[in-house]
Amino acid sequence: MNERRATDRQASLRNYIKLYLILIRTSVRSRMQYRFNFAFGTVLAAIIQLSEFLMIAIVLAKFGAVRGWTMHEVGYLFAVMTLAKTLYRTFGNEVHNLERYLVEGELDQLLTKPLPVLLSLLPRGFRIMFGEVIQGGAILAWSLGQMLHSGQISWWAIPQTIFAIVTGGVVLFAIGMATATCGFWTTRISMLQNMTEDAAQTAARYPLTLYPGWMSGLLLTAIPVGLVGYLPALYILRGELGLWVFPVLAAASCLVVLLALRFWKFGISKYQSTGS
Question: Which pairs from 209-217 meet CB under 8 Å and 24+ separation?
Fold first, then answer.
C-alpha cells in the first residue's frame, strides 16, 4: 500500500512538472508576440539597473571604500542580489503580483481549477528578464575579474557564487511568498512588500556592517536577505567564517521555503473570496 502511494505521488509530481512546463511555454509565446515591447523593456531595465550601480560606484571611487569594503566587493554584493532577485522574479513574479489577483477577484477563478493554486499562478508571469541578467552578469564579471586579477579570490569563487545566487533566489522567493500570503487577510500588500522585499533587498546590496546591530540581525533572521549576498561574500571574498557557510545556505533556503509554503497553505485555507 505504501509503495503504491509513493508511486502515485511520483506520477502526480511528474504530471505537475509537465503541466508547469506547458504553461511556461504558453506564457513565453504570448509575451513574444509583442517583440518590440520585449526588446525595449529589456534595454530599459538594463539601463536603469546599471545607473543605480553607477551612482554607488561614483561615491566609492571618491571615498575608496565603505567600512573596509572596496568598490569591487560592493559591486559583487550588488550583482549577486540583482541576479538572485532576477531568478526569483523570473519564476515567481505572479506571487509578487498577488494583490492584483485578490483585488480583481482573479484568485477566485484559480481556486475553482483542479490544480494547486500556486501551480496555476506561477507560470502566468514567467518571463526571462534579459535586461537584469545582462546588467547583473556584467557587474559580476567585472567584480570577479578584478578580484581574480589581484589575487584576492581564486577560480573557486565562480561556482561558489553561482550556488549563492541559486540559494539566494530561493530565499527571496520564500520571503515574497510569505509576504503575499498576508494578503489573504489584508488584501492590500504593496506597502508590506515595500518593506520586506524592496527596502530589504536594497539594504542587502551593501555590507550589513553599515547598519546598526539590530538591523543587521533583522536582515539575517526575520527578513533573511543577508543570506543572499552578504553571508556568502564573507567567505568567498574575504575568507571569513568557513566552508560550513554553503551547507548552512542550502539548509536555510530549504527551511525558509518550506515555512513559507506552510504559511501559504494556511493562508489559502483562511481566505474569503471577494464575493463573500
Answer: 209/67, 209/68, 209/69, 210/66, 210/67
